[in-house]
């Protein structure tokens, strides 16, 4: 049942040491900035984080990493121009990295939400990222076996939630939001606004409320107009 | 289509124009980050080419500037872009399913190395202390119906980039079908042979000197 | 919640009311075709239970009649239904992903046989000439967090339906956690033991006579 | 590139003998009635059909079966009160049946469209429908290996297409439409109306145009109001 909370701190309060936390967003689009900040404040450590990247600059996920709170990161693209906090921890052997092709990352997250125990994919076959993985020829293609990525919590961002927990997103900020909310045992979503049941057209709901545990409305800086 | 004759190696922009001319009308295409992005400048409305960006959009438009910029609308290179009429949004698993399911007619990628069997290395230099960062490259290389590579024929240090066998960690196996370089366009035949389709500002012999295996002529 | 005392075997409607009382407030539930559908009649708005139908809807409403009927809005039994506020639509793979991913708190299914280990047989009588037709039963039985069975304690021919080991082809292995029958409610413990939670119009001894293995008392 | 054709006959003309054809719909909702009728007229035989059922009454898929044009059917629920044409052909040994749990049917169709070579699922483990399938314990559950279901053609129904091929559906008529259009090599869709590019909100498109090859607008009987 949906829990609508008053502030980001209350939303992330259940996250305990040792949790696996999926964090949505691709670049700034869909990044749950205020939830990440609340997680930094809240203090949970020894975290495994699932994100497309490994933090940028000095804030958000980068700050969480710099504080030594992340034990392991599962992502597709850790190395960036401004991923210096991750880079330093990685070279110091203080953070574990599981680098995953972005499509395998998305499909493995989807598999966790969809009850798929494992799947074969051609992506990654013959590359260092397939080392140690089971290989099989299927449909005339060499494929590797990939496992679901599950999580205790997900932190994602949508634009509007209704009081049934249904979510709609905005443009490319949708990205990992729907699949992470479905994959996590406890999904936490920040939205710009919460409306009453019946205010969202059932045809356009992207994430049905069954996947949403906690919603918090946060006044985000105004976004541009399309 | 008439092939232009050229009397010198091509600039990245000129090469992008060559690639654009080879993309069939009505195609669904993903352009990789960096030099491949230039190809979009040479696609015309008549080409009716639809661009895919793996962060969840089909029908991606041109780069956005000034007041057009919307932080919720970016491409895979995290650059603000615009919509086109008929575009659509979807989540990351749906976006990669589109790519991995073989629905894109073509993707254009940069490369560190390509070898005669179409193996591609473009994500990792192989240096032991390098942090592996692959993004969507492996999905694109393996998933699109055709993978085109855009690169210089030789690296800055003069080393060949079209090689007998890739020495850097692979991105995909046997996935490249064409290589567009500043000096020539190559067709990968799948049986280990590579055909020089055309040269720019040099003859086939000059290109052959920069490639460490015997090329075929068109 | 106070358990009602009853002095006779229950009608399907009365049993549906017992099941409804056991569904937690706020639960997401799928009610199988046939007798389980009756449960919806005993869910109140205060229960805030959301019904899933596997043909692509969450927040399914009551049966539609007359002018309310919309041929594009039906349930898994192909009966016209209505919307509720807060409902949503999705395609078949997303709908079954919801079920198979363990997101439904509970499903209620009919059964031919259930055995002491929670194995369920409800789709195929096992007759050699029967046409196998499974629909979504295997996905529901295996995917929901809890699978409740609603059935009569014995078949029309008097044969027990709660058995030592299912003889009919299985729908799912070890998936049933509770059995609601006209004469008693049983809890499947997972270690082969089955507890009689309550009886209707008879005592545990009478129920025991209809079940071919030793039952546990609550 | 999208092909908008004038009539159902033109839409199904490419379907040749021996093709595998997915047909959308769950009950009457989403059933591409006019496309099925055109396929009956068009004459292709030796077909493999993928549908949730095996035909009802004497029209549509039931008629196609009664005419002996279907070699094999892959479905979840063949036996119904009015599936007499299928029943007769089946008992006469004149049609092959692959019975698939409905969720495996949907997921296998999705896998074909998504480039997944095979997947493990708990659904069906320990049942007659898993006989001969590979079994493995994953995530503490016994699971079976399922392969994608591919098709040469799909016949589905949506409510509106734009000229880029984007589709939106209506209520539970959505069902198998999106996954079948994505799985088939050549997808054929009947819609109630076709609008210009830009007339559909990009946030609410359910099937992006990349999955749609042929569209035909057919005046269907008016549907009820929500």
TrEMBL record, chains A, D:
NCBIfam families for this protein: pcaI_scoA_fam
Claim: Transferase is one of the keywords in the record: yes
Name of the protein in question: 3-oxoacid CoA-transferase subunit A
Classification via InterPro entries: 3-oxoacid_CoA-transf_A (IPR012792), CoA_trans_fam_I (IPR004165), CoA_transf_BS (IPR004163), NagB/RpiA_transferase-like (IPR037171)
Family indicated by similarity: Belongs to the 3-oxoacid CoA-transferase subunit A family.
Molecular-function GO term, any one: CoA-transferase activity
Top-level taxon in the UniProt lineage: Bacteria
UniProt keywords, alphabetically: Transferase
Keyword Transferase: yes
TrEMBL record, chains B, C:
Superkingdom of origin: Bacteria
Keywords on record: Transferase
A Pfam family this chain is assigned to: CoA_trans
SMART domains: CoA_trans (SM00882)
Signal peptide range in chain numbering: none
GO MF term list: CoA-transferase activity
PANTHER family: KETOACID-COENZYME A TRANSFERASE, SUCCINYL-COA:3-KETOACID COENZYME A TRANSFERASE SUBUNIT B-RELATED
Stated family: Belongs to the 3-oxoacid CoA-transferase subunit B family.
Record protein name field: 3-oxoacid CoA-transferase subunit B
Native organism: Kocuria subflava
């Amino acid at each position: 049942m949906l829990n609508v909370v008053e502030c980001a701190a209350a939303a992330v309060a259940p996250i305990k040491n040792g949790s696996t936390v999926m964090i949505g967003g691709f670049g700034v689009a869909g990044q749950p900035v205020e939830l990440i900040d609340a997680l930094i404040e809240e203090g949970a450590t020894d975290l495994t984080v699932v994100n497309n990247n490994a933090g940028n600059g000095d804030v958000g996920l980068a700050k969480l990493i710099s504080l030594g709170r992340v034990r392991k990161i599962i992502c597709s693209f850790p190395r960036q121009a401004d991923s210096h906090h991750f880079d330093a921890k990685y070279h110091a052997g203080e953070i574990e990295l599981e680098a995953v092709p972005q499509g395998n990352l998305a499909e493995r997250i989807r598999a966790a939400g969809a009850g798929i125990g494992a799947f074969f994919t051609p992506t990654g076959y013959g590359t260092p990222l397939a080392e140690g993985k089971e290989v099989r020829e299927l449909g005339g293609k060499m494929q590797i076996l990939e496992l679901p990525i599950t999580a205790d919590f997900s932190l994602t961002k949508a634009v509007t939630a209704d009081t049934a927990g249904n979510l709609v997103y905005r443009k490319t900020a949708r990205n990992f939001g729907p699949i992470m909310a479905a994959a996590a045992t406890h999904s936490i979503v920040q939205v710009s606004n919460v409306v009453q049941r019946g205010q969202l057209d059932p045809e356009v709901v992207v994430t049905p409320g069954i996947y949403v545990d906690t919603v918090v409305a946060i006044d985000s800086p105004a976004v541009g107009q399309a | 289509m008439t092939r232009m004759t050229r009397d010198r190696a091509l600039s990245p922009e000129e090469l992008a124009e060559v690639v654009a001319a080879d993309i069939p009308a009505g195609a669904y295409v993903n352009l990789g980050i960096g030099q491949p992005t230039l190809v979009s400048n040479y696609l015309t409305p008549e080409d009716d080419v639809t661009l895919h960006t793996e962060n969840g959009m089909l029908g991606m438009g041109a780069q956005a500037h000034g007041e057009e910029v919307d932080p919720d609308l970016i491409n895979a290179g995290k650059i603000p872009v615009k919509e086109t009429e008929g575009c659509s949004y979807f989540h990351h698993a749906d976006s990669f399913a589109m790519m991995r399911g073989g629905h894109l007619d073509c993707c254009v990628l940069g490369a560190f190395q390509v070898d005669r069997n179409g193996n591609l290395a473009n994500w990792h230099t192989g240096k032991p202390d390098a942090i592996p960062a692959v993004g969507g490259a492996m999905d694109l290389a393996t998933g699109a119906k055709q993978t085109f590579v855009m690169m210089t024929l030789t690296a800055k240090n003069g080393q060949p980039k079209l090689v007998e066998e890739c020495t850097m960690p692979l991105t995909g196996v046997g996935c490249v079908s064409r290589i567009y370089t500043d000096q020539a366009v190559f067709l990968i035949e799948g049986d280990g042979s590579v055909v020089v389709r055309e040269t720019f500002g040099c003859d086939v012999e000059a290109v052959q000197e920069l490639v460490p295996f015997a090329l075929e002529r068109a």
